[in-house]
Amino acid sequence: MTSLKAACSQCNLRELCLPYGLSETEIAQIDQLVGARRKVKRGHHLYRAGDPFEAIYAIKMGFFKTDILLEDGRDQVTGFQMAGEILGMDGIGTDIHTCNSIALEDSEICIIPFVQLEQLSREVQALQRHFHQVMSREIVRDHGVMMLLGTMRAEERLAAFLLNLSQRFTARGYSPQEFHLRMTREEIGSYLGLKLETVSRAFSRFQDEGLISVHQKHIRILEAAGLKRLLNHQPP
Amino acid sequence: MTSLKAACSQCNLRELCLPYGLSETEIAQIDQLVGARRKVKRGHHLYRAGDPFEAIYAIKMGFFKTDILLEDGRDQVTGFQMAGEILGMDGIGTDIHTCNSIALEDSEICIIPFVQLEQLSREVQALQRHFHQVMSREIVRDHGVMMLLGTMRAEERLAAFLLNLSQRFTARGYSPQEFHLRMTREEIGSYLGLKLETVSRAFSRFQDEGLISVHQKHIRILEAAGLKRLLNHQPP
DNA sequence: CAAGCCGTTTGATCTGGGTCAATATCGACC
DNA sequence: GGTCGATATTGACCCAGATCAAACGGCTTG
User: Fold this and answer.
1) What DSSP string runs through B217-232?
2) How far is CA A7 from CA A2, A34, A58, B20, B160, in A?
3) Superfamily designation of domain A8-148
4) B163 touches chain A (CB under 8 A)
5) Of the candidates B57, B102, B115, B183, which lies 20 to 30 Å from B233 by C-alpha distance?
C-alpha cells in the first residue's frame, strides 16, 4: 500500500469529485482532510462487507465494482464506479460496510476519514451541501437500477447500461463512442439481473443490427440513437 | 391542508425518527426546526417528480409509496414508507424531486425544511450523524431491493417483502403476525418486479402451504420460519 | 510455441412468470 | 339495498430468458 499525500487542489477530477463547487480556500481545507492515497491492485478489495467503516473513498484513477454476497452463495453486483466517484457510503448507517468493493483494474483512491469529513462539513457549508448531494444522487441512481431491474427487458437493460457508461466516460474526457469494458459479461449480467449468456447474445444482436461493434471487451457505439430508441419503447 | 405545530419532544416516534439519539435539549432545538404538520389524504401526492425540493418529511402517521413514472408509461414503485420514516431525500441531489410520493391511507407528516436541517446539523453533531445514517440506510435498503430484483425468484421476493413488513410493524409496536396491507397486489408487484397475477398466485400458494392466511388485504403470518426458509434456499 | 485456462460466443431445450381471459369479491355511492 | 367500478383470484397458454452444452479466442506460463 503506497501512501502519497493527496491534493484535491492539484487534482483534475475536482470538478467531478467531492470538492465540486468549493472555493480555492475551501479546497485548501479539504487538502488537509483527505488523508492519503492508496493503490488497489486489480482484483483486490478496497473493503469488504463486515469491515468497520472509517472512511469514504474517492477514486483517483481506475475502476471498481461493489457487490453483495448472500449466505447461499448468490451475489449481485450493485454498481460500477469510476474516477471521481465516491465509494463507501454504505457503511455510514451501521458503522460497518455492507458490501464489497473490488478493483477491476489497478486503481488509486483517496482516503477521506469520515469523522473528519463530518467535522469539516460542519464548518464549510458548501462541502456539507455537496456531500448531501452526492449521497442523494446515489439514492437516485439506485432507484434507476431498480427501475431497470423491475421493468426492462434484457436488451433495454443492456442499452441503458452502455449509454450510461458512455455518458460517464464522456464526462471524464474520453470518447463517447469507444471504450473498453473493465468487467466481464458475468459481472454485467449480475448487475443487470441477467445471465452472462443473455448479455453476450444481446451484444451480438446489437452488433448484427449495426448499433455497436463488439470485440471482446472493446466496444464502439455506432448508433447511439438506436440504443436510445430501445429505451423509450414499450415492451410488446 | 391543516398545519399544527409539530413537537418531536412529545412524539412517541422520536426513537424511530430523525431525533433518534439526541438529548432532551437537542430535541428541543429540533422542535424549532420542524415546521408544521400536514395531512395528506389517501391517494393524494405529498410531492411529485419535478417539484422543487425544499424539505424532507417525517411520517407522523399513515403509509406512503414512492414511485417513478417513465415517459413510455411504465412505472415502478420504489418503496413503501411508514410512520417514523423519512421521505424526500431523492430531491437533495438536484433540488428537484425525482419520484412521486403518494399516501396509501390518510396520513400526517412533519415538514422539515432542508435548509434549516442543514443549518442545525452544522451545530448539533448528533443530528448530523444521524441524518447521515438515515441517508446511508436508504442506500443500503435500495441495495437490498436490487438484490431481490436481480437474484430472487417470485416466491422469495414475496417472502422477503412480508418478513420486512412484519419486522417494521413490530418495531412500531404492532403485531408481527397480523397486519393489513395498505397497497394493492399491483403495487406489491410493481415493487417486486412481478405482475399482480404472480403476486396473487404466490399468496395463494403460501396459504395452501400453511405459511400464511390471506383474506384480501388482511395477512396473518402462521409460520415465519417457513418464509425465512424460502429466502436462504438457492433456486434449483 | 504448446498447453491450459478464462472468458466469450453460439446452439438446443426448458420453464417461471407473463399474458389474456373469465369470474369472484369488496366497498363506495346513490 | 342494489349497482358499479376497482381489486383479487384462478385457469390456459405462451415466450423471453435461463439452463445445459459445446466450441472458440485470447491470455498467460512453462
Assistant:
1) TEEEES-HHHHHHHHT
2) 15, 8, 12, 36, 45
3) Jelly Rolls (2.60.120.10)
4) no
5) B183
State the best of A77, A120, A132 to mutate against chain B, taking most chain B CBs within 10 Å: A132
Instruction: Quote the mean pLDDT of chain B.
Output: 94
- In this predicted structure, the answer to whether residue B2 has a pLDDT above a threshold of 50 is no
Q: How confident is the model at residue B6 (pLDDT cuts 50, 70, 90)?
A: low
- Site from B86, B90, B132 to mutate, A interface, most A CB atoms within 10 angstroms: B132
Residue B1 scores a pLDDT above 50: no
**Chain B residues touching residue A121 (CB < 8 angstroms):** 122, 128
For A58-101, write each residue's pLDDT tens digit.
999 999 999 999 988 899 999 999 999 999 999 999 999 999 99
Q: How far: A186 CA to C7 C1' (Å)? A: 9
- Confidence band of B234 (pLDDT split at 50, 70, 90): low
- Cα separation of A55 and B75, whole Å? 36
Distance of C1' in D12 from CA in B197, Å: 14
The cell numbers describing B127, all together, are 443530528
User: In the 170-189 stretch of chain B, whose C-beta falls under 7 Å of nucleic acid strand D?
Assistant: 181, 184-186
CA–C1' A170–C4 (A): 38
pLDDT digits 0-9 by tens, B132-154: 999 999 999 999 999 999 999 99
Q: Which residues of A touch B99 (CB under 8 A)?
A: 143
Torsion of CA A157, A163, A168, A174, to 10 degrees: 140
The three cell numbers locating residue B94: 438536484
A193 touching B (Cβ < 8 Å) = yes
Q: What is the pLDDT of residues B19-74, one digit of tens each?
A: 999 999 999 999 988 878 999 999 999 999 999 999 999 999 999 999 999 988 89
A146·B145 Cβ contact <8 A: yes
Nearest residue on chain A to B232, judged by CA atoms? A72
C-alpha to C-alpha distance for A110 and A6, rounded to whole angstroms = 7
- Listed by start position, the domains of chain A span 8-148, 153-231
Q: Which residue is nearest to nucleotide D26 (CA to C1')?
A: A216
pLDDT tier for residue A1 given thresholds of 50, 70 and 90: very low
Residue type, B119: Q
Q: How far off is chain A from B44, nearest CA to CA, in Å?
A: 22
CB-based contact B200:B184 (threshold 8 Å): no
pLDDT of residue A235: 55
Q: B153-231 has which fold? A: Arc Repressor Mutant, subunit A (1.10.10)
Å: B217 CA to C27 C1': 13
Integer Cα distance of A182 and A160 in angstroms: 17
